[in-house]
Design brief:
alpha+beta
Length: 78
């Protein structure tokens, strides 16, 4: 029975089926709002925190991610 169902799925025609278009849904998604009190790029570099344990990287407490330090690039493949 499973063999027949798999054959049916592979051999069924695809021409008659409408193609699904999710463009409207993707375009309607808005970008997340900026954190209160911060303009884009305003105070961005001042909010980053250096770490002695991770030289070459800065911690972004707002986005909660590590950012490469442009003044002290990370060394090696870490």
């Amino acid at each position: 029975m499973a063999f027949l169902l798999s054959l049916q799925a592979r051999l069924s025609p695809w021409e008659g089926r409408p193609e699904i278009d999710h463009t409207d849904e993707v375009e309607s998604v808005e970008a997340p709002p900026e954190p209160p009190g911060l303009e884009p790029d305003q105070d961005y570099w001042s909010r980053l925190v250096p770490s002695d344990e991770n030289p070459g990287w800065l911690w972004d407490p707002v986005e909660e991610e590590w950012v490469a330090d442009p003044d002290n690039p990370p060394e090696g493949d870490e």
